[in-house]
Design brief:
The complex is a heterodimer of chains A (about 230) and B (about 725). Chain A has one domain: 3-Layer(aba) Sandwich (Rossmann fold), CATH 3.40.50. The two termini of chain A are about 20 Å apart. In chain A, helix 1 crosses helix 5. Chain A contains 5 helices and 11 strands; from the N terminus they run βαββαβαββββαβββα. Chain A has about 230 residues and is an alpha/beta fold. Chain B starts with 8 loop residues before the first helix and ends with a helix. In chain B, helix 7 packs parallel to helix 10, helix 8 runs parallel beside helix 10 and helix 18 runs parallel beside helix 19. Chain B has a 7-stranded mixed β-sheet. Chain B contains 25 helices and 28 strands. Chain B is α+β, with helices and mostly antiparallel strands and about 725 residues long. The longest helix of chain B has 20 residues. The chains are: A alpha/beta (about 230), B alpha+beta (about 725). Chains A and B meet through helix 1 and strand 6 of A and helix 8 and helix 10 of B.
Chain lengths: ~230, ~725
Amino acid sequence: MLSAIIVFPGSNCDRDVQVALKQSFGTAPQMVWHAETELPAADLIVVPGGFSYGDYLRAGSMAALAPAMREVSKLAQKGVPVLGICNGFQILCESNLLPGALIRNSGLRFVCRDVYLSVENPDTVFTRGYSVGQCVRMPIAHHDGNYVAPLETLDCLSSEGRIAFKYCDDKGIASEVANPNGSARNIAGIFNERKNVLGMMPHPERLADPALGGIDGRAMFEALAGKVFS
Amino acid sequence: MTDAPPITNDMIAEHGLTQDEYSKVIEILGRNPNLVELGIFSVMWSEHCSYKSSRHWLKRLPTEASWVIQGPGENAGVIDIGDGQAAIFKMESHNHPSFIEPYQGAATGVGGILRDVFTMGARPIANMNALRFGHPDDEKTRHLVSGVVAGIGGYGNCVGVPTVGGECNFHHAYDGNILVNAMTVGVADTDKIFYSAAAGIGNSVVYVGSKTGKDGIHGATMASAEFTDDAEEKRPTVQVGDPFTEKLLIEACLELMRTDSIVAIQDMGAAGLTSSSVEMASKGQVGIELNMDLVPVREKGMSPYEIMLSESQERMLMVIKPGSEITAREIFQKWGLDFEIIGHVTDTNHLVLKSGTQTVCDIPVPPLVSEAPIYERSWVQPPPPAPLPTSTPADNVPIEDALFRMMAAPDLCSRRWIWEQYDHMVMTDTVQRPGGDAAVVRVHGTEKALAITTDCTPRYCVADPLEGGRQTVAEAWRNLIAVGARPLAVTDNLNFGNPERPEVMGQFVGCIEGMAEACKYLDFPVVSGNVSLYNETNGSAILPTPAIGGVGLIENLRNMTSIVLPPDNHLFLVGQTKGHMGASIWLHEIGGVEAGNPPPVVLEIERKNGEFIHQCIKEHVITACHDISDGGLLVALAEMALAGGCGADITVEPNGIPLSHYCFGEDQGRYLVATKDKIIIAEMANKSGIELTYLGESGGNTLTVNNRAPISLESLRNAHEGWFPEYMAG
């Protein structure tokens, strides 16, 4: 299994995903500089977290125009799994690979803490290591994670099983109190129509090692590596 | 030399030089300086750059140990952490700018300290800070807290270095002078450490990073004077940071460092291009010639004076090996950063600056550095603290009520509101997050880790500088011990008032003596540091605040503990409890008085108890550990209980001491530990001659002391977590 990580100026979770992918895939992912116009063959492409281009103009907006992202779009259309985490999610929205946008947190402050997520759709290449309704713990660390989209888009995401994760409490209830950033319908991650593109604000790579206090994120990488069959 | 307008007395005064100092300038040059030269002498001889009031006393601090690779004098201190690796770290203040413009002041403080560390070849792996604000009731405090925390987070989060912890106090003495001390820890290979001494006559001097603008001109001079009511008007001297450029600069520098191209490298911090070029020339005992016309600038028409004194951020100066120019340029271009050869190394020992066809500065470097003024400021023993009153309103407050109030007090309540704004997990090596005794960050790809803490108890330092200095070091040491680390070295950030006032100088001298004594006794040398003086407004000084950043090594993560209290364990108190109430939080918060001597630190016992704890952790005898400091035993127990979500039932025998004194006294050298095995720990303590007291058992969801009414953990948590967000919501 091969994987690739797109590296932008200002990416800062590229190494973290690299470690997590290597652990699950057994092989080191290829690091692809944003200026590349051709991508290596890969079974998974990750757009990592960080502050691509300093988040200037708008988080993810400049990265969406990088040469490498044009290739990512093409491969996504061919069905290659693409995972965008945090700034990666913002970039995927700005690239129109995913609908909606991520605006400033409702509390207006940067928020870094563990949150609970309920798994809304475990029938995808990303989430098949989880079970439906399972409550998993992952960290968030963002200033602009407040997911917004038109009502019809939200309804569509709900009805088509395209909500991957919702923020919830430790009992799995997607309550208002459990929503760390004001996201519509507590949305923490969404799929594209074909469900080969996932964008999520939480960082699965940050809890994929027991030394860091949990491994709930690891199941996603294991699933992508084809190690979990449910 | 150009014809320049004559230097007037007003110009000399505006540059912060005394008439005596100016006479020395003329003596060194053998003529009158021009304005550029005056500016350069002014910043190089400022308190901030020259340490002219503190240098005499700093020599007292021990700086050596077999594991110290580089002590004070370089960009940061370097210690050996085994396996061919080194930890590189330093703490630095950005107090004055942060008061004027809290977001940018704090952000650029983080940027500056990061550069000090990666300049030496280290990848930064953790940021810490030590913050002091005015009283919560002061009208500016909320605004300053909000801006400083956002600024620290805004910079560190973007750069992608986790901010893993820190400390924060509130006191009226900081109303007009907040303290923002930022610390960075990095890791490098011991054979790839870079220094700042320029060498190789004719080698290119290279400027990299951001362009030079007019921001921050005279920042170092500003930081060397006390504030008057016009502090707000100094805003143009505050620099503006760009963490995105810093991130690129880190990656570009570390990439270039892998290519064997760099002879010397120095960041442009305070006093910008001036101090970086002077320091590189001075350390290398060479001269440097720079062409002002080649310096990348943000706007046209900047004068050599402005270029040399600008404190624009995210810039570095390097001397590179002949033939490596192309490789180096390509790397910086890839990262989208400016790269210009702006001069070369000479054999003249002079700093020569050219602009067009003219020489605009020609200063001999050795006397500029070595003849910088040193003052042995006069000092007096500060007055003793007010005596401990025989009774206070606190005497009649039940311990349960006192505990609630203390856990919700500004100085003891949860700092979650702060650290949730810092990305403390990026780089995925933070194995102990903020909230414990010390942050623990794994050395990437290994099973070992660095423990990091920042500490200072200013209320002790003001009551008795000597004892306070000792305690500050001891507490940092103890915090590292408590997580299972072997304490290795410290960086210090000495924040004081105006050194020209003998009582302030007396505080400085006392704190240094106390620190020196503790550092020596605990084998805990000082490897880097920073002095920030003139922290006073209209003659009112801050509390003496010698902040310490301690670093220790955990050789294997299996031998690590935390404050997280597990259920079904036995609780023991290590160390002697006399119920020392002087200068305590209890006396202040519950009794409403600041009085009494601080608790004495007995270094011999400190060391013995610490070594005992270290051994217990190494042999896996204890399952959780917390040093007992602010607020005493019961606060320590409450913190462990909240961290573990696990209650406890303890019985204490105060032996003649009032129960509240036993519970809240701040006697030093103590730890609270949890263990599965009552007998082994008792045997070990007995063998080492350690005072060990059995307290009770962990479990449940309440805290109970001596069979009194149980305290609900949930309500205690609400009180502890509630203050900060409620206060900030205003």
